[in-house]
Amino acid sequence: MAALSSDISSAVLGAADAVTFGVMPLEAGANRHAHVNLPWLAGLKEEQLFANSALQVRVWRAAVAGPELEEVTRRIYDALLADVGSANLVRVWNYVPQINRVEEGLERYRAFSRGRAQAFEAAWGTHFEGRLPAAAGVGGSPDELVVIAAWGEGRAVAWENPVQMPAYRYPAEYGPRSPSFARATHFLDGRDEWFFISGTAAVRGHASVAVGDLAGQIDCTMDNLRLIGAQGGIGAEVGADGGWIRTFKVYLRNPADLARAQSLLAGHAEFDATRALWVQSDICRSDLLIEIEVTLRRARRD
To answer: Which of 4, 167, 174, 298 is deepest in the core (most CB within 10 A)?
Structure first.
């Protein structure tokens, strides 16, 4: 591979560490907070990853100049998968610089997806889809790729939404390599039970719906969350019952839509506004206005 203009750095996050969005680290000391350069809009100000958990969490970051994104992505994922080894990779957050920008004829998200798929194929073989984790891929800093991953020893089951085509089977119109993630992952470690729902938006089959219609996209997104919850066994109420601690993260493309989006989501009983973190971010498709992910955790019951 050709030399890159910047190095890849990584850091381990400990049990009490957190990811902050659009604010500077709240504590001094190495690795206490991994800063992600997204403007914070409302709600919770940080996401803790993961207190008193058996999960391993690491953050990788690298400056990206020009058309290096695919290669930087491949190298980060090569390192990530080497660290995971034989454990189960259960959740990844990808903050992709200028995600919707077209560069050398290819949208940057699609270049990112190609680099990621190449790394999975190199590590896990051509039939890697059965091991894919829940994930989100959204815009981030304009010039830095940040990838945060969680993995562990335990039992992991991936779930798909019955009304959405699995992302890893998208047709060629979505790029030279399909996005490599599962819609959700259910994971049991030594003491906890986790259900990670990937970044979810207004997609049916493989097509975006309700284009230009915030209310329609929110209704479709929440319906998708209910469907994946029912499919994965946490219920169509998205874990509102059953002793789950839930955290919602809402990525909103246009900050001016915040008040209306909050009002619209208040009409959905499954959404817990007291446990929501709102940030401004571009979404992986330029016609999508909002994306929502959910992290659920409870004490293991079996």
So the answer is: 167
- What pLDDT is recorded for position 30? 45
Q: What are phi and psi of 124, to 5 degrees?
A: -115, 0
Q: What span, in angstroms and rounded, lies between the C-alpha atoms of 194 and 90? A: 9
pTM above 0.85, yes or no: yes
Question: Is the CB of residue 177 less than 8 Å from the CB of residue 212?
Answer: no
Are residues 196 and 187 in contact, defined by beta-carbon separation less than 8 angstroms?
yes
CA distance 179 to 197: 16
Residues 270 and 95: their CA atoms lie apart, in Å, by: 26
Q: What count of other Cβ atoms lies within 10 Å of the Cβ of residue 85?
A: 9
Could you confirm whether 103 is annotated as catalytic?
no
Helix 214-232 vs helix 258-265: angle between axes, to the nearest 10 degrees? 40
Buried b (16+ CB within 10 A) or exposed e, 171-186: eeebbebbbbbbbbbb
In which residue are the tokens 């509102």 written?
240
pLDDT, tens digit, for every residue of 119-148?
999 999 999 999 999 999 999 999 999 999
Report which of 99, 168, 105 is spatially closest to residue 131, judged by C-alpha positions: 168
If you average pLDDT over every residue of the chain, what do you get? 92
Q: Catalytic one among 193, 270, 291, 293?
A: 291
Q: Which residues pair with 298 in a beta bridge?
A: 193
User: Torsion angle of alpha carbons 207, 211, 214, 219, nearest 10°?
Assistant: -40
Residue 128 token pair? 């890697």
For tokens 């073989």, what's the residue? 125
User: Tokens representing 271?
Assistant: 């959404």
pLDDT tens, position by position, 165-219: 999 999 999 999 999 999 999 999 888 999 999 999 999 999 999 999 999 999 9
- Which pLDDT does position 24 carry in this prediction? 55
pLDDT of residue 28: 46
From CA 77, how far away is CA 276, in angstroms rounded?
Answer: 29
Pairing status of strand 102-103 against strand 33-36: unpaired
